[in-house]
Design goal:
This protein is an alpha/beta fold. The chain has a single domain, classed as NAD(P)-binding Rossmann-like Domain (Rossmann fold). Helices cover 41% and strands 15% of the residues. It has a seven-stranded parallel β-sheet, sandwiched between helices. Helix 4 links the parallel strand 4 and strand 5. Helix 1 packs across helix 7, helix 3 packs parallel to helix 4 and helix 4 packs parallel to helix 5. The longest helix has 26 residues. The radius of gyration is 17 Å and the shape is globular. Bound molecules: nicotinamide-adenine-dinucleotide (NAD).
Length: 251
């Protein structure tokens, strides 16, 4: 979905936008008329240059509160407004629960959940004076149904779904909407190891009624929808974009 012009005049940030889903979202938002700033720990300037248009590349870490405040302030100043935030930056580690390293647990929660909290809080401060905005958080099917050996990731994404509802509950009167997208398995650098493992390929196709994994543009399209006027009455919702994974169990 390019939806030319549907985000015309809007500006905001996609975190983790250098590659994968964030990159596809930044490209699609730009094609839909938005001014997009990519914030990433690496590769943001190169990605912004490749996307072109008004795209801005900012180096930053979603867990760094003063850095986020500075970066989002710069976005609002450069674009003259701040209408959307896509909380996309995320990490995932695999470890059996009994041996799950504490530092990995803490870092995963910090980036995926606390980072989303921090970026949302910072964005809301810039949206409030304008009387509106849209926040989209990247959750996962793992936030609603456990994936084995991913305790920290599962817990962080369950937290993202609850965070989405919490923001929506409190921002209702301010014109700021907040929703989440919970992707199934989508082909990106993060999920690349899956596609080298025959057992995983079989499990993914068996668990997905549509019989395949997704592509990044299939997540970008619902993100455009959620930030557009077409979603004015969509608030506090988690949209599963998973080829039917959550709808199916059994045979
Ligand atoms: N790919 C999938 O199958 C899938 C499924 C469900 C949910 N998701 C979620 O979608 C989001 C994007 O996933 P992806 O597959 O594109 O991942 P990816 O690893 O390909 O890209 C993630 C991007 O986030 C950036 N990033 C990581 N930590 C950061 C930090 N602390 N601060 C700023 N940027 C940081 C990385 O540099 C990278 O550019 C994640 O939140 C992920 O959990 C992905």
């Amino acid at each position: 979905m390019s939806e030319t012009g549907i985000l015309e005049g809007r500006a905001g940030v996609v975190t983790g936008g250098s590659r994968g889903l964030g990159r596809a979202i930044a490209e699609a938002f730009t094609a839909a008329g938005a001014q997009v700033a990519i914030l990433d720990t690496a590769g943001a300037q190169d990605a912004a240059a490749e996307i072109g248009g008004a795209t801005l590349g900012l180096t930053g870490d979603v867990t760094d509160a003063p850095g986020i405040e500075r970066a989002f302030g710069e976005v609002a100043q450069q674009f003259g407004r701040f209408d959307f935030l896509v909380n996309n930056a995320g990490i995932r580690a695999q470890a059996p629960f009994a041996e799950h390293p504490l530092d990995v647990w803490k870092r995963t929660l910090d980036v995926n959940l606390t980072g989303s909290f921090l970026c949302a809080q910072t964005a809301i401060a810039l949206m409030l004076p304008r009387g509106g905005g849209s926040i989209v958080n990247l959750a996962s099917i793992a936030g609603a149904i456990a994936l084995k050996e991913r305790a920290a990731y599962n817990a962080s994404k369950g937290g993202v779904i609850a965070l989405t509802q919490s923001i929506a509950a409190e921002m209702s009167s301010s014109g700021i909407r907040c929703n989440a997208i919970a992707p199934g398995i989508v082909e990106t650098p993060l999920s690349a190891p899956y596609f080298r493992d025959e057992r995983m390929i079989a499990a993914i196709t068996a668990n997905t009624p549509l019989g395949r994994w997704g592509q990044p543009h299939e997540i970008a399209a619902p993100a455009i929808f959620l930030c557009s006027p077409a979603a004015e009455f969509v608030h506090g919702h988690t949209l599963f974009v998973d080829g039917g994974w959550m709808a199916f169990k059994g045979y």
